[in-house]
Design brief:
The protein has about 700 residues and is mainly alpha-helical. The radius of gyration is 38 Å and the shape is elongated. The two termini are about 60 Å apart.
């Protein structure tokens, strides 16, 4: 069987997605040449088995319509086209034109490269394309090779495929050099307005999308310029956009716009691409599916959740048929759908999708690090959803599974592991399992400490929460040690006048007060007050909080004058009624103890007035307390009539509020010295 027939049969097999059989035919054809079988391949040429590969006398064989099982042998069938598939079709040889032997040989070599690319064996493909470049150069085309079909395969096609091979292996600089050479060759031999130029410009744009380390607007504008120029050239030559390659360029423009946050323009470009692809491709083509996915992502970012979910479903209808369920893109899409549900507040649906995504990813590859990382991230998100739903048991289970994966992935201390530990700690804290929570917070703190400067402020937050838990458990000395570390970190990284420094000082003051270390408590509260008084980040309530704490300490050590000053300033700043009520009681109490009963009476009267202008059972309960306090003041002033009237009003208010044993309120109520520390607690952290 002659070389031309074998080549053409191989070309037909490549088009029919049977690259392995094509390679057999092409290797067999090389056996019939005199000097091209050496060093062309790492594999020895093998004669094909023609039981399922019958050759006729025609120059070409039409492609099969039904790929069947052959799809899984062709890498390109399962690869989205970003515009780099322009030169992936094999070449046929037309015997009627009596081509020279050199053209026949170079065509066979080119088709071998194409077949190996379809098979996913890029290293072998690169070998054949390199041989072809060497042949072109030896034929005298080293300086300005003609890009038209000559000696079998064109330099443009060869260089473009080499560029694609470099791209697929992550060698972006080498790929860029190949595509730039394509532009130079085509421009020198034809003109700038040529479809080969458009294809190369698009490929350069794709390279930039994948290789740029950031989404700097200036860099994205350069990328867009390559795509828009490619589109302009194609439109000028073809006179229309209804072309599969033009649709690809439009889709790429949409991707670039998406990276800048211009989601509306991105969606519009993807929609144009989708409409074209529906016309020029079969309806279930993988590139149609890819555009649907792009449209869904843009819709999701525009908060069009219903449209996004519908587009993702349409994508899955095509992609699952082409790729099968055990494919990473299917898993990623289900995860994206979960995020859409979560953003829309549909937590139950989000949880179901996240669980499905985890299962799909695990089916794809259990040992692939990138897949494991994605699974751990999803488990963290799933744990956060369960936490929001108060499903704390399942939250811990999800976080623990994610933690196991992260520990397996990372040999060194890692922020993701610390984040998951913090999430688990928060769930235990919510369950009031303080000892378990403390253990996980401490483990997270060790990792954050090992990571050094970048994690210093996060370490401060973790240590602050550790201090709070130790405080709650009565371990005051250990709590102070934790807060002292927090204070050092925050002063070092935020400055001595930062609001967070004042928060730490306030917390330390509370603990010192509990320990009876009054001087230390006063010092902390005064430093805190000084910082908050001069901080733009401090609200009136923040200042009122520390004033209340400082006033309460002054009450305990008998400095009633300072206490009155603090409480009076506090009342003028507070916004929450419950806090105003508490401070009015404390201020009235101080006046009463100083025998300034009329001043106390004035405080309690103010409380009554506020209560009468507001509604609710909680307000009625406060009203009853203030009325009883008024009664006590009237008795102290020997105003029995007013005292009894206030007492009876207090009893009625108690009954209205549903309070039992109201008569006990005639005694001066014990002041609740709960310090509103306003500590900033770690919330459920997002997946790292």
């Amino acid at each position: 069987m002659c070389i031309i027939q074998l080549n053409n049969k191989a070309a037909a097999l490549i088009i029919s997605h049977e690259p392995e059989k094509a390679i057999q035919c092409l290797h067999h054809s090389l056996l019939n040449t005199h000097n091209l079988t050496r060093n062309f391949s790492k594999q020895r040429p093998v004669a094909p088995k023609f039981s399922s590969c019958c050759l006729g006398d025609d120059d070409s064989t039409p492609p099969y319509d039904d790929f069947g099982e052959t799809m899984k042998y062709d890498a390109f069938v399962l690869e989205y086209d970003e515009g780099m598939h322009t030169y992936h079709d094999p070449l046929f040889i037309y015997a009627a034109k009596n081509p020279p032997e050199e053209t026949v040989r170079s065509t066979v070599l080119y088709n071998l490269g194409i077949a190996h690319m379809h098979l996913g064996d890029d290293e072998e493909a690169f070998t054949y394309f390199s041989i072809l470049i060497d042949l072109h150069q030896r034929a005298g085309k080293k300086a300005k090779p003609n890009p038209s079909l000559c000696k079998g395969a064109s330099m443009v096609a060869i260089l473009s495929n080499i560029g694609h091979i470099h791209f697929r292996t992550g060698k972006y600089d080498e790929a860029l050099a190949s595509y730039k050479e394509v532009v130079e060759i085509t421009r020198d031999c034809h003109s700038y307005y040529h479809l080969d130029i458009a294809a190369a410009l698009n490929s350069i744009g794709v390279l930039r999308i994948h290789s740029l380390p950031s989404i700097d607007p200036k860099e994205v504008d350069v990328t867009l310029a390559f795509f828009t120029e490619a589109h302009a050239i194609r439109n000028a030559i073809l006179g229309h956009d209804e072309d599969r390659h033009t649709a690809t360029v439009l889709n790429n423009i949409g991707r670039a716009k998406f990276s800048t946050g211009d989601y509306e323009t991105a969606y519009a470009c993807h929609s144009l691409s989708y409409n074209i692809r529906q016309k020029v491709l079969v309806s279930n083509h993988l590139d149609v599916a890819a555009t649907l996915n792009n449209m869904a992502q843009a819709s999701s970012m525009m908060k069009h959740s219903k449209r996004a979910l519908g587009l993702y479903e349409d994508y899955l209808d095509i992609a699952t048929e082409k790729l099968g369920m055990k494919h990473i893109d299917i898993a990623a899409t289900v995860s994206n759908m979960a995020e859409v549900h979560e953003d829309a507040g549909n937590l139950q649906d989000a949880a179901l999708c996240y669980k499905q995504a985890v299962s799909l990813y695990q089916d794809v590859a259990t040992d692939d690090v990138s897949v494991l990382f994605e699974v751990s991230s999803i488990l963290n998100k799933l744990g956060s959803i369960y936490y929001e739903q108060s499903n704390l048991v399942d939250a811990i289970d999800a976080y623990q599974k994610g933690l196991e994966i992260e520990i397996h992935i990372y040999d060194e201390p890692n922020r993701s592991v610390a984040t998951t530990l913090l999430n688990i700690a928060l769930v235990y804290k919510t369950q009031e399992s303080s000892s378990d929570a403390l253990a996980y917070y401490k483990e997270a703190a060790q990792i954050q400490h090992a990571l050094g400067e970048p994690e210093a402020l996060r370490l401060a937050c973790t240590l602050s929460t550790i201090g709070l838990l130790l405080d709650d458990s009565g371990s005051y000395d250990a709590a102070i040690l934790a807060y002292e570390k927090v204070l050092v970190l925050r002063m070092e990284h935020l400055g001595s006048c930062h609001f967070d420094v004042s928060t730490t000082l306030n917390a330390m003051g509370v603990i010192y007060y509990k320990q009876g270390l009054v001087e230390a408590a006063v010092k902390c509260f005064e430093e805190c007050l000084s910082i908050r008084g001069g901080s733009k980040d401090s609200s009136n309530d923040d200042i009122a909080t520390v004033l209340f704490n400082l006033g309460s300490v002054h009450v305990d050590i008998g400095q009633s004058g300072k206490a009155i000053k603090c409480f009076t300033e506090c009342i003028n700043l507070e916004a929450e009624l419950i806090n105003i009520f508490k401070t009015l009681k404390c201020l009235g109490h101080v006046y009463f103890k100083r025998d300034e009963v009329k001043a106390a009476l004035k405080c309690f009267n103010k409380g009554v007035e506020i209560c009468k202008t507001n509604d609710g059972n909680a307000i009625k309960a406060q009203l009853s307390i203030f009325l009883c306090l008024l009664s006590k003041c009237h008795f102290a002033l020997n105003q029995q009539k007013e005292a009894m009237a206030a007492f009876c009003d207090g009893m009625r208010a108690n009954r209205d509020a549903g309070i039992e044993d109201a008569e006990n309120l005639i005694d001066f109520p014990v002041v609740d010295y709960y310090f509103m520390s306003k500590l900033k607690l770690i919330q459920c952290a997002p997946a790292a």
